[in-house]
Specification:
There is one protein chain. The chain has a five-stranded parallel beta sheet, sandwiched between helices. It has a five-stranded mixed beta sheet with strand order 6-7-10-8-9. The protein is globular and about 70 Å long. Helix 3 (69-81) packs parallel to helix 4 and helix 6 crosses helix 7 (174-186). It has helices at residues 28-36, 45-54, 69-81, 102-110, 123-131, 148-160, 174-186, 209-218, 239-251, 256-267, 271-278, and strands at 13-16, 39-42, 61-63, 86-88, 115-118, 138-143, 164-169, 190-195, 203-208, 225-229. It folds into three domains: 13-121, Tetrapyrrole methylase, N-terminal domain (Cobalt-precorrin-4 Transmethylase, domain 1), CATH 3.40.1010.10; 124-229, Tetrapyrrole methylase, C-terminal domain (Methyltransferase, Cobalt-precorrin-4 Transmethylase, Domain 2, 2-Layer Sandwich); 239-278. It has 280 residues and is of the alpha/beta class. Helices cover 42% and strands 17% of the residues. It binds S-adenosylmethionine. S-adenosylmethionine (SAM) is lined by residues 20-21, 90, 92-94, 97-99, 122-124, 168-169, 194-199, 224-226.
Length: 280
């Protein structure tokens, strides 16, 4: 246990995003922050040293990864409470997104330490930005469980989802995941495989889930992958059902405007029909 005096003002825990492939994506503010803290907490210190050396950042690096998070967190919180500022980075992209850091952030917040992000690259947002699927609403699943009940439940949830699903996937498992999604009922859905984002061989491959499954069964992809699947088309309820729902919602005190929204979102009604029924 580290024992340190508590400073009048604690330091700040900075959560710093780093490149997902293209080293040019490290922001000037990330460089400034990483250069100005007492220590940088990294998943793999040897890996991160390359990035820091490239940017002439001489700040000490300390290991903070999924295997030592539980033991190292109290010591880091003590340093923050003693007034030192620290920066958390992961091997690539934004910490906490399928990467370690959640425990430390929670502990810092519980201890009253300010947590401040320095946003930047994440494969999730880069994929979503370039995929061409609806990005207004999406659900991020991170990595699928490899097998078992949890995998089946997540696949079923993706198939039922009314908006875009985003998953991280290993190249060796991509074809099997696409096939499982097709078998679960999403075969005709549009999907995008975003591969090697920001790197030399960046690629967006688009098609139905079924087409992409067949493509990747024939050739296993290389590199890092984000899989995006279009949401399920809403099942439009018939007019009598819409009318009954609208009457019920209006009776409960909901405004006509909110009823329109509800009929569109939960019952798949086109806007003009939802509007007419909500105002009847
Ligand atoms: N924290 C990171 C982020 O913000 O995106 C992700 C870390 S997670 C351990 C690594 C996974 O992210 C990879 O297996 C892949 O699914 C995805 N990924 C990371 N970099 C990528 C890239 N350049 N292109 C496509 N996917 C990438």
């Amino acid at each position: 246990m580290v024992s340190r005096a508590q400073a009048a003002t604690p330091g700040t825990l900075h959560i710093v995003s780093t490149p997902i492939g293209n080293l040019g994506d490290l922001s000037p503010r990330a460089v400034e922050t990483l250069g100005g803290v007492a220590a940088i907490l990294a998943e793999d210190t040897r890996h991160s040293r390359v990035l820091l050396d490239r940017n002439a950042i001489r700040t000490p690096l300390l290991a903070h990864h999924e295997h030592n998070e539980a033991e190292s967190t109290p010591g880091f919180v003590a340093r923050l409470l003693a007034g030192e500022s620290l920066a958390l980075i992961s091997d690539a992209g934004t910490p906490l997104l399928s990467d370690p850091g959640a425990r430390l952030v929670r502990a810092a917040i519980d201890a009253g330490v300010p947590v401040s992000p320095v946003p930047g690259p994440s494969a999730l947002l880069a994929a979503l930005a370039g995929a061409g699927l609806d990005a207004e609403r999406f659900t991020f699943y991170g990595f699928l469980a490899r097998k078992g009940k949890e995998r089946g439940a997540t696949l079923a949830a993706v198939v039922a989802l009314p908006h875009t699903a985003v998953l991280y996937e290993a190249p060796t498992r991509l074809a099997a995941t696409l096939r499982a999604l097709a078998d679960a009922g999403a075969g005709e859905r549009q999907a995008v495989v975003a591969r090697e984002l920001t790197k030399q061989f960046e690629e967006f491959r688009r098609g139905t889930v079924h087409e992409l499954a067949a493509y990747y069964e024939a050739q296993e992809p290389r590199g890092e992958i984000v899989l995006l699947v279009e949401g399920a088309a809403p099942v439009v309820a018939d007019e009598a059902t819409l009318r009954a729902r609208a009457a019920e919602l209006r009776a409960s005190g909901m405004s006509a405007r909110d009823v329109v929204q509800d009929l569109m979102e939960t019952a798949g009604a086109p806007r003009n029909l939802a509007y007419r029924i909500a105002h009847e």
